[in-house]
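pasting for ref
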Amino acid sequence: MTLAFVSATGPDLLRLVALPVFAWVAIRDIETRRVSSGVWIPLALLGGALLAWEARIARAAGGYAWSHEFLVPAAISLGLVVPIAYLFWWFGGFGGADAKALLALALLFPTFPAYTVGSVTFPVATTPIGSFSFTILTNAVLVAILIPIALAVRNAAAGRIAPVMFVGWPVAVDRLPERHGRLLETPEGVSRGGLDLDALRMYLRWRGLSLTELRENAGHYRDPATLPEEPNPPTDGAVTAEVRSDGGSETALEGEPTPDVDADSEDGDYDHDYDDPWGADAFLEDIEGTAYGTTPAELREGLAVVADPETETVWISPGTPFLVPVFLGLVVGLFYGDLLLGTVL
């Protein structure tokens, strides 16, 4: 079958639909860290239909085309890539969208596609394994490995030398409400286990506060007596979520400071020994589910960092979503082929 100047089988041409879809979900994942599950259902259904179509073509050809060019790659795609995606999701290595993306790719690309443009056929580097979804996965892993190197080079060029320069970069504290990722700082210094920024947004929305308000009255809000009587919905922490902020925090600021809080204290009364500083325990007990696995201690440490009015910038990890390497792995796979095996075989 020929489409304009591209020659390929019918199933392979229809598989190109995945390219703009994955470009869109990669961009959306960068901007919002949210991808609707409804995206994957049509792709999976299309993949299943194309798998049956290709099986019929290979069965009619018989011989090597059926046994080695279809059955073996399809078995690897469905019997290896699908379990890998599920296990990585189960153990927390992948997000739900990442796992669903790989499941859809396993159905869409069980075998290597072939696109002839003039005298050149893409991908140019195939492998004996023959499973294109496996190639996309290995390409994605290699691309993901290069991201920390790129971050380190970027930080080194800007003179930012730190133990976490391979996983993040510094941003202004007032930009945190519109950022995704994780804090790489605690009151004790840089750390890989800082507060998830989605959890920070959930907490602020639950209290009906902005980060600016929290920083301007840090000592006041550290007192759990200032928690709103009727907390607001915390949302899921997404930057684009619709937020209602009519909690009791405004009432708590009226009149005299709460007992044991000195409104003029330069350190915001951070040394006061409250039973539940910042109301971290109360927040996590009140919300349904969890705030991305955040513990009360992690929340308190993160709030102590971002609420300090003297702190202007903090290190964060952008937590590059795996759908970006998956998209890039798909693009590289379609034009070049397998980055890992194609260069050594």
